[in-house]
Write a structure and sequence with these properties.
The chain is of the alpha/beta class and 1457 residues long. It is 50% helix and 10% strand. The protein has 49 helices and 30 strands. Helix 15 packs across helix 17, helix 30 crosses helix 31 and helix 41 runs antiparallel to helix 45. It is globular and about 105 Å long. The protein starts with 7 loop residues before the first helix and ends in a 5-residue tail after the last helix.
Length: 1457
């Protein structure tokens, strides 16, 4: 146990052998024998916190895959033959135990395929580790074990975003099931209950307890919010403080007694009144969970108190007994548990091959990308380049089509990077668990995954495009070599992308690096740059480019020995340039290809394939090792330092003194870092969780295990006699100390335990919640400004039903006729429909706040207390769907009301119907979205903003427009103080590219945003997920305070502790089928179920846990009886009467509104910011993001600057002969290609920004028009202006392009317009498609088509007439023609030269002098004086159309309600 940031995950990583090497010090012993990381990996099962599962397999298939690798071969078939159970018996036993039967044949799912829920995936992960559990766990009767709901999904695909599969909870159980298949002597689990409801969490822990007691397995698990019956299953407990110090480690039954006695001693020794601990922190009362008491103690106590508790435990009898036990084990070591079964290499290879082949034909993205798209591309290329001919245009088309095929295959390999990155994560997880080795995985990937996917697409080009284009006819061997070269290139590019993906830390970085490397290698392919003109200092790059050898091999294969001659045709009327009729070898010589180098090209292509393949294997084998972690640490440190330097050059962080003045929070002694404590028992760690740093000390660690005959394996965690575990900034949530929340940080004490509803119920007993100090109560008054005074809001809903269409037909109901209400208790008078608070000036608000006495009743201040309502139910009960409807995020049809048809969300397969009312008046989803504050479960925040900036941004937009800036700052400061965000107020929020807050801190920032404007209705979806029980209680306590101040709060919650549940005024309990089992006052829930004879079997069981157990553990028929019993209950009749009264009053208000047009029938909007205010606030944030985002800086500034210098060096002083003309064309085309691919590489960032836009627009922060304007003016334009400037300022003079300021300006204008158009195309695609992978694929195809019709790959003179419309949509066509027109129109001094041996004197070369217009006419470009401006106008029009399409997609498609 421990708060967030205590290092629980780090500790488990070390104990599981996943983290080792530099920075990790100390000793780990098993049964007294010192072991190393490799030993731990061979004997430990480890279920990590995040579930990584193959989405294209069903649950049963994946468990069978793991069983075949983790279990020894079964001697005979079925169980009962006397020789042990078969693998299938073991798999199905684990499936039944973990409740995976329903999803056994469902796809697991991943980011590309829809599948299981998070909880289901978690159970699958646990099942894998349980596969090797002892035979006594093979149960034939379901009554002998808890059922975790996986049997029904045994044959379901796990699934991902493309294929429907399991829910999150089912995926969680699958992860657990994997380890249960072959549970070894040691089983570690990191947060196995996260994402599960309390009942399923208890089921998982019960199975683990039975493994420990009956199977002789030592189980260590970290857990956030254990309910009392879960904690009672624990034999031992370790409690860590926020700084990683061991506060207690010993028998779980003795924990409360030891900590209570120690805390009393600490309080007595302190002597000072203000340092004494509250009684709630010295005594574990009967109605308080022991785990909650322990977490409260380490989180709410002052830092020096926790240090004293650490010292007290060090000197305790429990610690001494542990030391004695550990020493006895070390003196007489036992036998190590057997290592996990390692299958033979052949078994590994065969099992992996079967899975990879299934993935090849099941994965929709791979099928679409490698087969469907390639087939369509081959057909399109054949039709576009049909009958290439043998004239000048035919030569250009033949060379162009060969280059385009290579470019297409390379970009398709680039587009599959996200899939490979996900496969790599799965490989690392399975390799570390001992399922297979690196060699078997690599060979299986190459033979059964890489080769099938890379061989078939070239065959499409060979079987269709080759013949239609008219490539080398009557040559069967040429066709075979053509296929072989394309296959080799495809494999080399795939290996290169795999190597980059294996080394890169994220998808976006991998995409950026791979794009840059791909473009650099393409540059030396021989098409963009004449092979004979490659500078000496760049030839080493050309030798490493597989495009260089592949393109020359294709060209030689095409032209060498061609049966007919080629001839040049041009508007040049001269015979000076011989010969006009040449052979295929002459064409090769003219473009610098070696007709005798074919064999060398083939050999070098194979060598590069082997080189990239070897590098891929090396990186895979080293991934996760100490050397790789150290290299990753150094790279991250370098990039972080570089980004910090760049940010320091452009921006400055707001001074902390301003914030301290606003919050009036003077630095305190507790807020300063505490000095090192030398009494720690576990290693010290910091720095992003990539290592463990230690300091010398002199106290040995003592943490062992009690000598129980039921436990056969003991683990000793021995530190290096020094510093305690300590969190550092960044990294995972468990590796970050949340701004001092633990041990007396920013959290203020909590208010008395319970809302007014709890008090009215007369619930007595000691509570952990404490009264607020006067200053913080005044701050809460600041939060309450703007609330409705004299009235509150009642939200009611009737017959809400939601169904989801199934792929195989039919529908599944998520919600079924759900009715309920949230608001003041029914015995209070109904509020007036849409009652508006009287307008008050800022002075009146301030005066009321200053003269309000401490603890004054809210009614005395003119505010009526409202309601805090909890929504409970198992995973899949429809809690999130219900909140989405009530928040206006999901449209619904109103039966007999406003709408007559089912509401359907765009792009969604779900429909919803029913009625939602506010104070009795019928409202639609759009009205709800404007008046309801909604904190969704998934945290979406801008990583490059600080907490203070982000809260100020929302406050300036969502508070009334007339609110003075001083009051805005006060409100932001008050919200930050209330939610414990003071210390991180000026820290970056952080994302995948920027180090920032922990997961718990980010969740509190999301809550803080909605608290800024204190809406009358506030909905929260799982606001406590990821928080420990104490911090979860604090969040709910703040919600209860808002309810007392008149805000109606409705929240879903998974595992509420008893004091959290007592804060709830009302309860809505849903069954797994989405039906109402109970809704009404929480005080009536226990009586209602008691009247049905359903009382807790264990005294002291929480009401929340009891009711969840009822709906989850009961059979479906009994749940149906519970649903019916509630419909005829007195509680249901009382609620229905209350809703009816509201409807009647709302109907009267509607009639009055229709009679009086001046009476408003709309609730108060959540913001009053004007369009200009929205644009101003968004512009400031976007401008800061431009200079703060490391990927944007690296891609748009750093990489472009380096590429511009490199391009100038490669094309240095291009000549004016044939080779120089080719280089000028190639350099200009490369600039356009680079800018297009750079815009494509930024697609992941744009998709993330789009998700943030959807969330903030739905919250009412700003509108689509303001967002789009800001993006165009302060994001698109700045980011697209500087890269072209680099090319024009650096590359332009180095290449020797046309001199003159006017031509320089014309080139810059075209490059800027082209870059903006490319960005607009990427934005439109990102707005239209739902996932990054699909957007990346579509963007790649769009860029390829645009380049194909640019005039460089396909001769404009030979372009088919029927394809002209597609060419007219190519922005590269207009941009490239404008660039070459600027370079050649009106210029002189060029000459066409025939092939000559290197070193020949210039005066001996056969040539003909030509003008720039002659060159343009030769390649089909316009020579008119208006050509440049015509192209600029067309490019501007196309850019405007794409921007307009982006705006319309953002407004009407993306996340609309």
């Amino acid at each position: 146990l421990g708060p967030s940031g205590a290092g629980k995950t780090t500790l488990l990583d070390v104990l599981g052998g996943r983290r080792h090497g530099e920075g990790v010090q100390g000793e780990i012993r098993v049964n007294g024998v010192e072991v190393h990381a490799s030993d731990l990996r061979s004997m430990c099962g480890y279920v990590q916190q995040d579930d990584v599962l193959p989405g294209t397999l069903t649950v049963s298939e994946y468990l069978a895959f793991q069983a075949s690798l983790k279990l020894p071969p079964a001697k005979k078939g079925r169980q009962g033959d006397g020789e042990g159970p078969a693998h299938s018996d073991k798999v199905w036993s684990v499936i039944k135990q973990l409740g995976l039967t329903r999803v056994a044949h469902s796809f697991i799912g991943d980011s590309f395929m829809r599948g299981l829920s998070g909880g289901e995936k978690r159970r699958v992960s646990i099942a894998i580790e349980l596969l090797c559990a002892p035979g006594l766990l093979l149960l034939d009767e379901p009554t002998k074990a808890w059922t975790l709901g996986l049997t029904r999904v045994a044959h379901s695909f796990i699934g991902d975003s493309f294929m429907r599969g399991l829910s999150g909870g089912e995926k969680r159980r699958v992860s657990i099931a994997i380890e249960l298949l072959c549970a070894p002597g040691l089983l570690l689990l990191d947060e196995p209950t996260t994402g599960l409801d309390s009942t399923n969490a208890a089921r998982v822990v019960d199975i683990l307890a039975r493994l420990a007691r009956e199977g002789g397995i030592t189980v260590i698990l970290s857990i956030h919010q254990p309910r009392p019956d879960i904690f009672r299953l624990m034999d031992r407990a370790m409690l860590l403080s926020g700084n990683g110090e061991v506060v207690y480690s010993g028998p779980a039954a003795d924990a409360c007694n030891h900590l209570g006695a120690a805390s009393e001693s600490v309080a007595a020794l302190a002597g000072l009144q203000q340092q004494q601990l509250p009684s709630q922190l010295t005594t574990c009362s009967a109605d308080t969970s022991p785990a909650d008491f322990m977490l409260d103690l380490v989180i709410r106590s002052r830092r020096e108190t926790v240090v004293a508790l650490v010292d007290a435990f060090r000197d305790s009898e429990i610690a001494q007994n542990d030391d004695t036990w550990v020493c006895s084990l070390a003196d007489s070591p036992g036998v190590l548990p057997p290592a996990k079964y390692m299958p033979s290499f052949a078994t590994q290879l065969g099992t992996l091959s079967t899975r990879l082949l299934r993935n090849t034909y099941r994965h929709p993205f791979l099928v679409l990308l490698n087969f469907v798209a390639s087939l369509c591309a081959a057909i399109a290329i054949g039709l576009i380049f049909r009958d290439a001919g043998t004239d000048t245009g035919g030569i250009q088309n033949r060379l162009g089509v060969l280059f385009f095929m290579l470019l297409y295959l390379s970009l398709m390999s680039l587009s599959s990077l996200p899939v490979w990155r996900q496969e790599k994560l799965l490989y690392l997880r399975e390799r570390d668990s001992g399922s297979y080795g690196s060699a078997a995985y690599y060979i299986a990937v190459v033979v059964f995954d890489l080769l099938p996917l890379r061989v078939l697409p070239p065959f499409f080009f060979a079987l269709f495009a080759y013949w239609v284009v008219g490539l080398h006819p009557s040559c069967a061997s040429c066709l075979l070599w053509f296929i072989g070269v394309l296959v080799g290139t495809n494999i080399a590019s795939a290996f290169m992308c795999m190597a980059i993906g294996a080394a890169a830390p994220s998808n976006s970085v991998a995409n950026m690096v791979a794009s840059l490397v791909m473009m650099l290698l393409l540059l030396f392919g021989g098409f963009l740059l004449n092979k004979q003109r490659v500078p000496v200092y760049c030839r080493w790059i050309a030798k490493l480019s597989f495009f260089n050898y592949a393109y020359e091999a294709l060209a030689v294969n095409e032209f060498h020995g061609f049966p007919v001659d080629f001839y040049f045709t041009s508007p040049i009327k001269t015979s000076v340039l011989p010969p006009l009729r040449i052979t295929g070898d002459g064409v090769l010589n003219e473009f610098g290809f070696d007709e005798f180098g074919f064999k060398e090209d083939i050999v070098m292509l194979c060598v590069l394939c082997v080189m990239w393949g070897g590098l891929t294997y090396t990186l895979l084998a080293l991934a996760g090792t100490a050397a790789a972690e150290q290299a990753s640490k150094q790279a991250k440190t370098f990039l972080h330092s570089l980004g910090a330097c760049v940010r320091a050059m452009f921006i400055s962080t707001p001074p902390a003194t301003d914030y301290q003045l606003l919050t009036d929070a003077a630095p305190t002694e507790e807020s300063s870092p505490s000095p090192p404590n030398n009494h720690g028992r576990v290693p010290y760690w910091r720095n992003l969780g990539v290592g463990l740093d230690t300091h010398q000390g002199n106290t040995a660690d003592r943490s062992g295990i009690e000598s129980s005959s039921d436990v056969h394996t003991a683990v000793e965690i021995k530190g290096p006699q020094e510093q305690p575990l300590r969190g550092g900034p960044g990294g995972r949530d468990e590796e970050v100390q949340e701004g001092g929340l633990a041990n007396g940080g920013d959290w203020p004490p909590m208010r008395p335990g319970g809302s007014k509803g709890a008090k009215s119920r007369g619930q007595a007993g000691t509570n952990v919640l404490q009264p607020l100090p006067q200053q913080q109560q005044q701050q809460l008054g600041v939060l309450s400004q703007g609330l409705r005074e004299g009235a509150c809001t009642v939200l009611s809903w009737e017959n809400l039903t939601c169904k989801v269409a199934l792929p195989q037909g039919g529908a599944r109901y998520v919600l079924q006729a759900v009715t309920g209400c949230a608001g003041p208790i029914p015995n209070s008078p109904p509020p007036h429909p849409f009652a508006q608070p009287p307008s008050q000036s800022h002075a009146a608000h301030t005066a009321a706040r200053e003269h309000s006495p401490q603890g004054a009743n809210t009614a005395a201040e003119g505010r009526q207390p409202s309601c805090l309502m909890a929504v409970l139910g198992p995973s899949g009960a429809g809690k999130t769907t219900l909140l989405d409807i009530l928040a206006g995020r999901k449209p619904y049809g109103v039966q007999g009301g406003l709408l007559t048809q089912w509401g359907r969300q765009a792009g969604s397969s779900s429909t919803a119907s029913g009625e939602v009312r506010i104070n009795g008046r019928l409202v639609d989803s759009r009205t709800l979205s404007h008046v309801v504050g909604y904190v969704q479960q998934e945290v979406v925040l801008p990583g490059t903003s600080t907490v203070w900036e982000y809260l100020t941004f929302h406050a300036s937009l969502r508070l009334p427009a007339q609110t003075p800036s001083e009051e805005v700052q006060e409100r932001v400061a008050a919200v930050a103080e209330q939610l414990g965000l003071t210390k991180v107020a000026h820290n970056f929020i952080g994302d995948a590219f920027v180090r920032g807050l922990s997961g718990g801190e980010k969740r509190r920032v999301s809550i803080a945003v909605e608290l800024l404007c204190a809406p009358g209705l506030l909905l929260l979806d799982e606001p406590t997920t990821g928080l420990d029980s104490t911090n979860a209680a604090r969040v709910v306590d703040i919600m209860a305070g808002l309810a007392r101040d008149g805000v109606t709060v409705l929240m879903s919650i998974h595992q509420p502790r008893p004091d959290i549940f007592r804060l709830m005024d009302r309860l809505l309990l849903l069954s797994s089928e989405g039906q109402v089992v109970f809704t009404g006052p929480t005080s009536a829930a226990q009586d209602h179920f008691g009247s049905l004879g359903l009382v807790p079997s264990t005294p002291g069981t929480s009401v929340a846990d009891h009711v969840l157990d009822l709906v989850i553990k009961a059979p479906r028929s009994q749940v149906s009886q519970l649903v019916y019993a509630f419909t005829v209950s007195a509680t249901a009749h009382a609620d229905n009467a209350w809703i009816t009264a509201l409807i009647m009053q709302g109907t009267k208000a509607d009639r009055a509104a229709s009679a009086d047009p001046h009476q408003s029938n709309k609730a108060r909007p959540k913001y009053q910011a004007s369009y200009l205010q929205q644009v101003s606030a968004l512009s400031r944030r976007l401008s800061a993001n431009c200079v703060r985002h490391p990927l944007l800086i690296g891609l748009n500034f750093g990489a472009t600057f380096v590429m511009a210098l490199g391009l100038g060096a490669i094309y240095w002083k291009s000549g004016r002969d044939t080779g120089g003309i080719q280089d000028r064309f190639g350099s200009l085309f490369f600039m356009l290609m680079y800018l297009a691919l750079a815009s494509l590489s930024s697609l992941p960032i744009w998709c993330d920004d789009r998700l943030l836009f959807v969330r903030e627009r739905a919250a009412g922060a700003y509108g689509t028009a303001a967002y789009f304007t800001s993006v165009v003016l302060f994001d698109v334009l700045p980011m697209r202006l500087l890269p072209p400037l680099f090319f024009v300022a650096a590359s332009y003079p180095m290449i020797g392009l046309r001199a003159g300021g006017l031509y320089w300006a014309h080139t810059l204008l075209v490059l800027v317009l082209s870059n903006i158009t490319a960005a607009s195309l990427s934005m439109a695609i990102g707005a239209a498609l739902p996932s990054v992978a699909l957007a990346n694929m579509a963007g790649s195809l769009a860029v390829l088509l645009s380049m194909l019709f640019g005039g460089f790959l396909l001769s404009r003179n030979k372009m088919p007439g029927w394809i002209g419309w597609a060419a007219g949509l190519s922005y590269v066509r207009y941009a490239f023609e404008a660039l070459v027109s600027t370079e050649f129109h009106g210029a002189t001094g060029f000459r066409f030269t025939a092939f000559h041996q290197p070193g020949a004197p210039p005066d001996k070369l056969p040539h003909v002098n030509v003008s720039g217009d002659d060159i343009l006419a030769t390649f089909g470009f316009s020579t008119s004086d208006s050509a440049y401006w015509d192209d600029v106008a067309a490019l501007t029009l196309l850019c405007g159309l794409l921007l307009g399409a982006t705006f319309l997609l953002l407004k009407y498609r993306v996340g609309r309600v």
